[in-house]
Amino acid sequence: MSRALRYSTPAIALHWLIALLIFVAFPLGVYMHELPLSPDKLKLYSYHKWIGITVLVLAAIRVSWRMTHTPPPLPAGMVAWQRHASSAVHGLLYLLMVAIPVSGWLMSSAKGFQTVWFGVLPLPDLVEKSRELGDLLAGVHKALNFTLLGLVILHVGAALQHHFIERQPFLQRMGWGKKERA
Amino acid sequence: MTRHLTLFALLAALAAPAAHAVEYRTVLPKQSTIHFEFRQMGVPVKGGFKRFTTQMAFDPARPEAARARIEIDLASIDAGSPEADDESAGKLWFDRGAYPKAIFVSSQIRAVGNNRYEMHGTLTLKGRSRDMVVPVAYVPGKNAATFDGGFVLKRLDFGIGEGMWADVATVANEVKVKFRIAATGS
Fold first, then answer.
1. Is B75 touching A (CB cutoff 8 A)?
2. Which of A17, A96, A110, B79 has its CA 20 to 30 A from that of B91?
């Protein structure tokens, strides 16, 4: 075993930071939209948007990093379909980390509420205010999120399966447990 | 011939001040607008009122005699979203069941030069009346004149957004109001 089986430290940090933010933003999104209008609802919507745009920024950094750094190779024992599945799921996860915040940002503009990151940095409204477009983008945002939920379950399930059932040192790839050294 | 020309010049001279003496009384609702903007969690939100009636009389030669009365149907609000439109009708906001209208009545209009005026008057909203001064710009036009004005309303002065909504960190106290009234002299 060499250290090369572990992602680089920035990649690991970005992975867990983004994971944490998604695990806050997703249930927040599900919860907040059912609430009757109140100042708390307005606050939660803002926090949700701020977290989402933070994910977008971190995902952009992360994808750039990923494209310029070789990830650790998959365990030699992994069969071809698993390699393909892994690559496809990772690709889709990266895509959704960008597409979901962007769909939320556009939805917010279409509904007539500009997104102002942390209440300080206004993002441009890339679409006009429109009830139809707002409802459509809300549907898109929701569908992408439930796709993400499914993919995250697959992703976590596969990692745990490789680690605990196939006894491959899989979680170490993302910095879990002791560093493996040559 | 000379006499005719003299008469014509005389008539023209008489007609000229008459053209200036037009008094604007007929408001064109379709070309008149009331918009507002406020900040919610630091985000600017735009809205407006679709239905309002304006009674006015304005003669640029005698601004001191001018007057205006604007009645806004609060049910015609666009508060930025359908959810906010509904919410605004409630007791904490406009309490529209008891106070369906906002009414502004001018008391005095003062010329400040350059087609600009100060309109003093009283705004009554949700049973509360406040004196205010609204700057108005008069723009003469071919078919209609327009009167553009704007002011900053502090919603809490009128109890607009009480209780949980009184927190101005969520919904700002300041509401920028802008209006355009178009009127003809006929």
1. no
2. A110
